[in-house]
Amino acid sequence: MNSRKLFLFSRQMGLLVVSCSLLLTFVSGGSGASKQVPEISPQSVPEPVLAGEKLTYTISWSKVFSAGTAVMEVRREKADGRELLRIVSTARSIGMVDSVYPVRDTVQSLFDPRTRQSLSYFLDQSHGKRKKKRELHFDRERNKVTYRADGVQEVLDIPAQTQDALSSLYYLRSRQDLEPGKTIVFDVHDSGKNWAVEIQVLGRERIKTPVGEFDTIKVRTYPKYEGVFMHKGEIFMWLTDDSRRVPVLMKSTITIGSIVATLTEMIPGGSAR
After folding, report:
1. Hey, what long-range contacts does 82-86 have (CB within 8 A, 24 or more apart)?
2. pLDDT digits (tens, 9 = 90+) for 151-179
3. DSSP state of 246
4. Which of 4, 65, 78, 174 has its CA 20 to 30 A from that of 218?
């Protein structure tokens, strides 16, 4: 493989590291038309995500070539008398990819577990020589979001119950109605736009990972907009078939092979962290 092909391959793998780590592509594709989503009553849903949870993934090409790692942590935080969760997702490239096209990403979402809503979102990306930062601040009473990126600030309208690209995963995990054949639609705000997200529940499967074997629920979505993943292949995710809904395996089809994020370490939530 010549140096240019190596760079292009590593760059693509680097972008895929970002895609898997943010999980944005698994839950933030959709029809592009925003839809109103009925609110889930906080009293009717058990807590699937607790402070102290830490999930570590290896990101690979067709389970053959390791490209990076991703870690998602949940931390307890208190603000204005409310008990909140700070969700932190970090990703980095490794090996050959890291030497040619290094990726360092940190994403944070401040999440209210009582209402299942994001309060703020921060993204700090470093892809090779390219760097990007952006943030969102949600005004839930007025259904507005303040979007800041590249020195520009906008105040935009959002539908009720809109999530950010990271909190959307945790919102999905809070759903206890993931039954085969069901389609779930909710709203996500990303890059200054509102997107309608459609999740299809495909069925139940037994999955083996380095952490162990799990009974899982398999879901599918399609990324159809300009984000960190540019293609329009199918995205699959396997969530544990219990109240935690832990994503143990994620897979995205590409032109050649697939990109796979596999759970390699899990620390359950519930600690005093």
Report:
1. 82/112, 82/114, 83/113, 83/114, 84/110, 84/111, 84/112, 84/113, 84/119, 85/49, 85/51, 85/110, 85/111, 85/112, 85/113, 85/170, 86/110, 86/111
2. 899 999 999 999 998 898 888 888 889 99
3. -
4. 65
The pTM is what? 0.80
| CA 154 and chain centroid, separation | 24
Q: How far is CA 109 from CA 22, 49, 152, 173, 185, in A?
A: 11, 14, 20, 15, 21
Q: Which run of H or of E encompasses 97?
A: helix 95-100
Cα 221 from Cα 216, distance rounded (Å): 16
The token pair at 16 is 């895929």
Domains in the chain: boundaries: 3-267
> pLDDT by residue (tens digit) across 53-63?
999 999 887 66
Q: CA distances (Å), 250 to each of 13, 175, 199, 219, 263, in order?
A: 15, 18, 14, 10, 9
Is residue 136 within 8 A of residue 145, CB to CB? The reply is yes
CA neighbours closer than 13 Å in the CB half-sphere of residue 83 = 8
